Amino acid sequence: MCNECDRIDNEIEQFRRLIAPGMDSLSLAMIRCAIEMLEADKAAAKCEGSPPK
């Protein structure tokens, strides 16, 4: 993976750690939206599995 993909994966994991039982629906929806946006950014990066040179 490239550095950009690693960075995005780290951000996604940070958001996933914020999810807690009993969390209000607005906060949960905002976290899920942020994760979806990061996943879209990762897909748009078109990483070919190797670091850029």
Secondary-structure map with pairings?
Blueprint: H1 3-18, H2 25-44
Helix pairs in contact: 1-2
Describe the structure.
It is elongated, with a radius of gyration of 13 Å. The chain has two helices and no strands. It has helices at residues 3-18, 25-44. It is mainly α and 53 residues long. The model has no long low-confidence stretch (mean pLDDT 89).
Features:
elongated; mainly alpha; 2 helices
Low-confidence stretches: none
Largest sheet: none
> Helical region count?
2
Average pLDDT figure = 89
Provide a quick synopsis of the model.
68% of the residues lie in helices and 0% in strands.
